[in-house]
Amino acid sequence: MRGASHESLARAEEVLAGTTPVEGLGSELFSIARLVDGNGALRRALTDPARPAGSKADLAQQLFSGKISATALEILTAAVTGRWVSGRDLGDALDQLSIEAEVAYADTMRKLDEVEDELFRLERVVAAERALADKLSDRRIPVDRRQELIRGLLQGKADATTVRLVERAVDGRGRSFAASMRAYQVAAAARRNASIATVRVAAPLTEMERSRLAAALGQQYGRDIQLNVIVDPNVVGGVRVDIGDEVIDGTIAARLDEAQRRIAG
């Protein structure tokens, strides 16, 4: 999201931040996002740059008052009064706000760490189970049936916030399951003013090694670092760390590749 859309999302996020996190708000915002996705006339009316902000706010009030919570309506109104580079951006913003509402609620309930860990673990399970991944992403299977499958897998094993987010990842709104799960983890880390480091190693790290690595990365980047550790047998010695678009590759394989490039060059 860029330009005016980025600024409009930021203003709506400020409104969300000023509300009391409650269960169900995220689901409301996501439902509105899906409604905006599927109704071109509504999307154009709420994002028309030639239409005064007050008129768009009035329209949102007329359409949604009494049908969604006052908090959801306040956030929606803040969103529609902004300017959007494209109509799709409004739906994306409401989707993002729904994620932030969910992680805010988990944080309030002191379950944010639990939810973040469950999301990461499930992402790895799905990545390792090709048959499951194919079922969850098969657009020929109705969304509700795929969501029922994931609810069955998580029943009694995950927090309700985790289940709601994973159900949305199955829906996707055009985004892959893996990309959605990653976005949720990033939002959870951002709630704690932290960044996610994906760490690939050949063998599990001890708690002391995890603590030292997190501290070292935190000192280097100037913020808290959440480690998501993946044990990968293809890693030959050392460790590979991905933080955003940056890669720190200290594996033996990487060093050998670098040596070969120098020799060839």
Percent of residues in helices comes to 55-70%
How big is the Rg? 21 Å
Derived structural class: alpha+beta
Could you report the average pLDDT, rounded to the nearest whole number? 89
Main pleated sheet: 4 strands, mixed
Our count of domains comes out at 3
Rough outline: globular
Strand % is: 5-15%
Kindly, what is the distance between the CA atoms of the first and last residues, rounded to a whole number of angstroms? 40 Å
- Helix segment tally: 13
Order of helices and strands: HHHHHHHHHHHEHEEEH
Total number of beta strands: 4
Strand order of the largest sheet: 2-1-3-4
Low-pLDDT runs of 5+ residues are none
Quaternary structure state of the chains depicted: single chain
Tell me about this structure:
It comes from Kribbella rubisoli. This protein is part of the stalk that links CF(0) to CF(1). It either transmits conformational changes from CF(0) to CF(1) or is implicated in proton conduction. The chain has helices spanning 3-17, 25-38, 40-47, 53-64, 70-80, 87-108, 112-128, 130-137, 143-154, 160-171, 177-191, 207-221, 252-264, and strands at residues 194-201, 224-231, 239-243, 246-249. It has 265 residues and is α+β, with helices and mostly antiparallel strands. The protein has 3 domains: 3-108; 112-190, no CATH class; 193-264. The chain has a 4-stranded mixed sheet with strand order 2-1-3-4, sandwiched between helices. Strand 3 and strand 4 (246-249) form a beta hairpin. The protein is globular. The relative contact order is 0.09.
